[in-house]
């Protein structure tokens, strides 16, 4: 993951800071297979003035924004970073794809050649073979006790965030039956999934200590819960999302998360307790979100009944609307969500394109949408000249 320094508070609206990381897949534009070229693409990125991070597998790169106090501080950065990453990939003969999982399995020996990643491969074997690209949103929270309280309050909203951003329905060239196959695959790791309800920061730390003792993780950075206290930054890190298909969807998602965390912080300040959601109910809701995305139904954890997923997305929007209005973003976020409902999120567009035109067109469409809305997007070489 990218290593940045996060100041705990922003002067803008006196709200916590915000940072966004996006993980991308590298693909061969002709064969459509994953390309194990992240080191070379990162080098091309340096030549172009962008810092691309290496991920667990050699067919992935990651971008990270600087730290802002408002989404307006990051909006242009997110566009420019996608453009620069796509440009660097094209310079090395690759397509850059904002997708949660590859359309085909990568070649053997795909683990990135760093000491830490090689140690992970040695300890966890075939688990490290899965390629998963997410979007991680960091919200500045300096006090760890406060951060753990925020995690408890965020737990009920995690399935809705996943459903909204689901963008990985296809694997091995076919529809998996899941809008977010990435989330299902990620669940194989023993430190993944929704976090439990924590009674205190000591309870949180004890859970990590147990995972370390059992060998479930090699270090605290391998705590892959859907939301966690960052091990190296003073932030709460929301990790449940697939990488959204378009930069506009990433901007909307990050804005929603920022508003959600600030809304939760205000509730905590008034003494409002977090709802204690049974862990198995929450896991079931996350599984359903991964299966249906926004196109189907979701588990309402208030009633433990299935309802249209869009109903829960609108409930989230209503919950954070006062904060979005304070940010000056309510109208834009509302319009963006309505566009997603009308045109589909990443999973829906992939499935629609697969049914109409086949897998090759799906991949090319994903490459086009990755760059959609980015600066100078028409100049990006989506395939090598």
Tell me what the structure shows.
The chain is α+β, with helices and mostly antiparallel strands and 385 residues long. It has a single domain (21-377), classed as Creatine Kinase, Chain A, domain 2. Helix content is 45%, strand content 14%. The chain contains 13 helices and 13 strands. Strands 1, 2, 3, 4, 5, 10 and 11 form a seven-stranded antiparallel β-sheet that branches. A two-stranded antiparallel sheet has the order 6-7. It has a two-stranded parallel sheet with strand order 8-9. Helix 4 (144-154) packs across helix 8 (247-269).
How many domains comprise the coordinates? 1
**Count of distinct strands:** 13
**Average pLDDT rating:** 93
Q: Mind telling me which CATH architecture this is?
A: 2-Layer Sandwich
Indicate the radius of gyration in whole angstroms. 19 Å
So what's the CATH class? Alpha Beta
Q: By helix and strand content, what is the structural category? A: alpha+beta
- According to CATH, what is the topology? Creatine Kinase, Chain A, domain 2
Low-confidence stretches: 1-13, 377-385
Residue share in β-strands: 5-15%
Main beta sheet strand tally, sense and closure: 7 strands, antiparallel
Overall shape: it is: globular
Measured between the Cα atoms of the first and last residue, the distance is: 32 Å
Helix content: 40-55%
Helix segment tally:
13
């Amino acid at each position: 993951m990218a290593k940045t320094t996060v100041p705990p508070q922003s002067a803008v609206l006196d709200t916590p800071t915000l940072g966004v990381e996006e993980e991308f897949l590298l693909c061969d534009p002709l064969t459509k297979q994953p390309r194990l070229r992240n080191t070379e693409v990162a080098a091309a990125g340096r030549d172009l003035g962008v810092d691309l991070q290496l991920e667990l597998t050699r067919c992935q790169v990651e971008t990270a924004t600087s730290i802002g106090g408002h989404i307006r501080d990051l909006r242009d950065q997110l566009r420019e970073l996608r453009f620069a990453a796509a440009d660097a990939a094209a310079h090395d003969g690759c397509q850059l794809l904002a997708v949660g999982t590859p359309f085909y399995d990568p070649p053997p020996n795909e683990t990135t050649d760093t000491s830490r990643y090689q140690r992970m491969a040695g300890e966890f074997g075939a688990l490290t073979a899965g390629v998963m690209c997410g979007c991680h949103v960091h919200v500045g929270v300096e006090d760890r006790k406060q951060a753990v309280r925020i995690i408890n309050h965020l737990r009920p909203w995690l399935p809705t965030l996943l459903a909204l951003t689901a963008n990985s329905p296809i694997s091995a060239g076919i529809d998996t039956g899941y809008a977010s196959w990435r989330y299902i695959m990620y669940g194989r790791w023993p430190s993944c999934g929704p976090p439990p309800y924590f009674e205190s920061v000591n309870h949180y730390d004890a859970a990590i200590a147990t995972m370390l003792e059992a060998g479930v993780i090699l270090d605290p950075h391998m705590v892959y819960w859907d939301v966690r206290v960052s091990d190296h930054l003073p932030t709460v890190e929301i990790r449940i999302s697939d990488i959204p298909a378009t930069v506009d969807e990433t901007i909307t998602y990050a804005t929603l998360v920022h508003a959600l965390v600030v809304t939760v912080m205000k509730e905590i300040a008034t003494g409002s307790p977090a709802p204690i959601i049974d862990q198995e109910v929450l896991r079931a809701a996350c599984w359903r979100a991964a299966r249906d995305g926004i196109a189907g139904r979701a588990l309402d954890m208030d009633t433990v009944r299935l309802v249209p997923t869009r109903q829960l997305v609108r409930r989230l929007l209503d919950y954070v609307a006062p904060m979005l209005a304070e940010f000056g973003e309510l109208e834009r976020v509302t319009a963006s969500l309505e566009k997603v409902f009308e045109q589909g999120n990443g999973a829906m567009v992939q499935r629609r394109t697969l049914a109409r035109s086949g897998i090759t067109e799906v991949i090319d469409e994903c490459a086009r949408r990755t760059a959609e809305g980015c600066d100078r997007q028409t100049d990006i070489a989506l395939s090598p000249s």
